[in-house]
Amino acid sequence: MIDCKDCSGECCKRMVFPLCKTEELTRDIARWICAHIDVSIGIVGNMAVLVIQSRCMHLDNTGNCRIYGNHYDVCKEFPKEECLVNKNHIGKMLNDPTDVDEYFSK
Fold first, then answer.
1. pLDDT, tens digit, for every residue of 6-45?
2. What is the distance, to the nearest Å, from the Cα of residue 73 to the centroid of all Cα atoms in its chain?
């Protein structure tokens, strides 16, 4: 299992927030979300999560945190077992309205 100080900063390149259960996600809302630049929906089991592609201002060009040791509590407390690098747990990514249509057509 990789430790944060040995990582390329994958969690520092995006933010992921719980959105709703997949059965509560509507095609219209999903299409609207995915029509925005750098915003996607990830499907994690029976949950939909909002994925915002946005690089942390403290991440250097090599993927290291310039303020590591003084970084934010949310970074320090995030369980490395849940890290995108250690656990590839997003099963499906809906990146644009076409992906949404394909997802809802199944």
1. 777 778 899 989 999 999 999 999 999 999 999 999 998 8
2. 18
Q: Could you tell me the residue ranges of all domains in the chain? A: 4-95
CB 67 within 8 A of CB 58: yes
* DSSP class of 32: H
How far is it, in rounded angstroms, from Cα 58 to Cα 33?
27
- DSSP-derived letter for residue 46 is T
Taking alpha carbons only, the member of 61, 82, 62, 59 closest to residue 72 is 59
The answer for residues whose C-beta is within 8 angstroms of residue 25's C-beta and 6 or more apart is: 19, 41, 48
pTM value?
0.82
Cα 96 to chain centroid distance, Å, stands at 15
CA distance 2 to 29: 36
Report how far apart the first and last C-alpha atoms of the chain are (Å, whole number): 35
Q: Which two tokens stand for residue 30?
A: 């999903």
